[in-house]
Amino acid sequence: MACSYFQFVRSSHRLVNLTGFTRRNCTKVHKAQDTLKHMTGGSVTLDKDEKSGIAVISLDNNKKKNALSGSMMCELNDIINELQLWQTGKGLILRGENQTFCSGGDLDTFQNILSPEQGYSMSGFIGQCLTNLSQLPLISVALVEGNALGGGAEMAMSCDFMVMSDDARFAFVQKKMGVITGFGAGTRLVRKFGTLKALEILASARTMDATECEQLGLASKILPHSENVLDLTKSWLHNYCDGDPKVVRNLKAMVVAASNLSLEDSHAIERRLFSELWGGESHLKAQKSKLKH
């Protein structure tokens, strides 16, 4: 309910112009998807744990350090659409197989997408995919092992948190490739850190280790490189996802609304989400047991 209500508010009169823009470009985005799905290589898988309410998305393109092929982008989009319907979910981990996160886009895919119009359509498709990921009613964390470079760094930025292994590296290398960020990470960086710090990170195109990422506030936790780093990340995420799924999901929906909408609209959603929980099973149970005290 929280997710559907948020989507309803986003389609209000205050966002008519944006909605119209999206509608006019919808055909181009679908065309990009149709093109990308034929550029095969690697895979993206989903594992949902109903007991914990935590799902894991895994990128796997071993020969290319988990670089994203066109078909992987489409698989990721389908998985995110599936997670939008997962009513009992609370948390999400985005990770890469083979002890590395993602080295960006597969060059074999991008060599077939070289015109500005194609780039615009592809950016629209992947950008919307990552926006949908960021707005899932699940508390999400990117588990970065090895490298998160270029588009891989953009993917990690679409999650609520980032956890890094102590040997991980993170870089926005787009400038070195003759472009800029195109999937939304530039905007997210500016909103998270402000103009000057975002510009410094993007314009330097430097590679940052886990310690620097933690100092900057990009990474929330550094974990020792080990075979059980995924289990450690699940335990870390459980601290935030423990409890009633309805409460966790409404909390995330409120934060998403506050970061995207006006104060007036965001407050309206916050009150609505609050009222959905007031007098509910978890609230009454807490009242009875006097957990506050």
TrEMBL record:
Subcellular location per the Swiss-Prot or TrEMBL entry: Cytoplasm, Cytosol
Source superkingdom: Eukaryota
Cellular component GO terms, alphabetical: cytosol
Record protein name field: Ethylmalonyl-CoA decarboxylase
Protein family according to the UniProt entry: Belongs to the enoyl-CoA hydratase/isomerase family.
Keywords on record: Cytoplasm, Lyase
Organism from which the protein derives: Mytilus galloprovincialis (Mediterranean mussel)
Main location: cytoplasm
Purpose of the protein: Decarboxylates ethylmalonyl-CoA, a potentially toxic metabolite, to form butyryl-CoA, suggesting it might be involved in metabolite proofreading. Acts preferentially on (S)-ethylmalonyl-CoA but also has some activity on the (R)-isomer. Also has methylmalonyl-CoA decarboxylase activity at lower level.
Species lineage: Eukaryota, Metazoa, Spiralia, Lophotrochozoa, Mollusca
Top EC class of this enzyme: lyase
Thylakoid as UniProt keyword: no
MF-aspect GO terms: methyl/ethyl malonyl-CoA decarboxylase activity
GO BP terms, alphabetized: fatty acid beta-oxidation
Pfam families: ECH_1
Catalytic activity: (2S)-ethylmalonyl-CoA + H(+) = butanoyl-CoA + CO2; (2R)-ethylmalonyl-CoA + H(+) = butanoyl-CoA + CO2; (S)-methylmalonyl-CoA + H(+) = propanoyl-CoA + CO2
SUPFAM superfamilies: ClpP/crotonase
UniProt EC number: 4.1.1.94
